[in-house]
Amino acid sequence: MELLDAWTGAQPTKFGMEERALQRVAQLARHVCANHGNSNFEKLHRLEDPFRPVNWTSCRVGDVEFEDILYEKSVGEGIAKITINRPQCRNAFTVKTVEEMERAFKDARDDSDVGVVILTGKGTEAFCSGGDVGVRSREGYVGENRIPRLNVLDLQIQIRRLPKPVIAMVAGYAVGGGHVLQLVCDLTIAADNAVFGQTGPKVGSFDAGFGVSAMTHMIGARKTREVWFLTRLYDAQEALNMGLCNTVVPLDRLEQETVKWCREILQNSPTSIRVLKAAINATEANSDAQAMGGNSTLIFYATDEAEEGRKAYMEKRKPDFSKFKRLP
């Protein structure tokens, strides 16, 4: 006991300082907790009624009516919403669908009152299931003019270069080319029924452009290999944990939460947001890599291997890739 007293008595300054330091930390913590959300700065920038109803009005661009999409703008708020309107095929896109989206995105860019764009799919079963395999040929996706192409690659670049944030509002399936669309958006709000994944290798397809570069930048090379090589599907929580989406909310609150994020963005400097978007995108692979990936896809579509994947999908059977050699 004497030894203990002597030892503790020899260190009064050290223990006293530590105790005072701990008390000070506790005091600061209590102060922060008590004043969290109550600073003048936070009060000044806090949204008033962030979940108030939004009033959408239907829009048209030029004289031609949209058939494959819905295009709307919020009244007096600066939010545009583009909805892929093909729920009968899980919002799979055709050449025409992409062309209509391009027109809508161009209008949203040119409209100085619009500050943020929502991209979504009609209904709750799918955000977008990718390209409509039913109109895929050996040269690409065929439109009404019978010219095959991969015009979704142009749409991807358009979304990336749009000087305004684009938010993917995802309910249900975001797979294949639809998953790549949500990847090239700036933010993704997912409903709790959302499903994410790449299915291309199952149907003789792939996206070696942003489908690889954007995903690798988000979730790392190892996970990107897993997503593409195994073609698994991931639920909303798994996607959130991987970094494929920003947040997950109940399905009935999906649009409400997405609009709230839009309203928060719209409070900020538009030029700051514009430059930051470009700066973040500049840290990833550029459009030259995307062009290389697109060219590879076009070449691949002309092969019997890709055709086996397409035909198997159309015939509702499992593809047989065993007849194609795995060359050294």
TrEMBL record:
**Reaction equations catalysed:** 2-succinylbenzoyl-CoA + H(+) = 1,4-dihydroxy-2-naphthoyl-CoA + H2O
Q: Does this UniProt record's set of keywords contain Ribosomal protein?
A: no
Q: Which Gene3D superfamilies match?
A: 2-enoyl-CoA Hydratase, Chain A, domain 1, Lyase 2-enoyl-coa Hydratase, Chain A, domain 2
Q: Name one GO molecular function term.
A: 1,4-dihydroxy-2-naphthoyl-CoA synthase activity
Record key words, sorted: Lyase
The enzyme's E.C. designation: 4.1.3.36
For whether the record's keyword set contains Lyase, the answer is: yes
Superkingdom assignment: Eukaryota
- Family stated for the protein in its record: Belongs to the enoyl-CoA hydratase/isomerase family.
Recorded hits in PANTHER family, A to Z, give:
1,4-DIHYDROXY-2-NAPHTHOYL-COA SYNTHASE, PEROXISOMAL (PTHR43113:SF1), NUCLEOSIDE-DIPHOSPHATE-SUGAR EPIMERASE (PTHR43113)
**What name is this protein filed under?**
1,4-dihydroxy-2-naphthoyl-CoA synthase
From which organism does this entry originate?
Riccia sorocarpa
